[in-house]
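Appendix B, example 12.
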Amino acid sequence: MVALYWLTDEQMERLRPFFPKSHGRPRVDDQRVLSGIIFVNRNGLRWRDAPKDYGPVKTLHNRWKRWGEAGVFVRMMKGLAAANADPKTLMIDATYLEAHRTVSSLAVKKGGFGRLIGRTKGGMNTKLHAVANANGRPLSFFLTARPVSDYTGAAALLDDLPKAQWLLGDHGYDADWFRDALAAKGIKPCIPGRRSRNVPVKHDKRRYQRRNRIEIMFGRLKDWRRVATRYDRCPTVFFSTIALAATVLLWL
């Protein structure tokens, strides 16, 4: 059973400060349960298909649901990112995540914000916007439906940008308002201009080449099947999957 553990004792100690406090009876072994949660999300399984070595399926799913709703997995990623932050250079980009047909309903619950899934020629998709440091480690995420522009993601992530010298982005982020907002934060944009600009915008091409690290980050996140293909209707649950994958793959 030890061989099935995805997290070492040292990694568990780094995560433990973000765990909710146990009230009443002590929780079932955190290392075993969290490893089972990782196994299911990594391999794109149904909860009922989790190996018995990880314990009762109900325990795994209930822990996943409760901690996800409480934002525990998001706090893990942001907490580890903040503890290791020294971002001289930031990168921003977005990628598309396919939505499985069983979760592709666009119906909106009363008072809700929808599934954050959009219809395109390639099918149903969700768009993941991200800011990463110079090493391609994620600092913050934002989910939207597929047809939403990069500008919307940039605006949503703008307030959470840490202090930095540079921000790298492709021409999808070439907008005067975004450049001005970065300048107000003391950040220099390294963003190539769109061809439609009357006056060309210069950028540091050598520095811009480092932007491939955020693309590599997206590729690594998609190694988790429940990230590459969205099986969860609830955006909050899906966001927890992304945060957990980012924590395990890139911050531990």
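The radius of gyration is 19 Å. The chain is about 40% helix and 15% strand.
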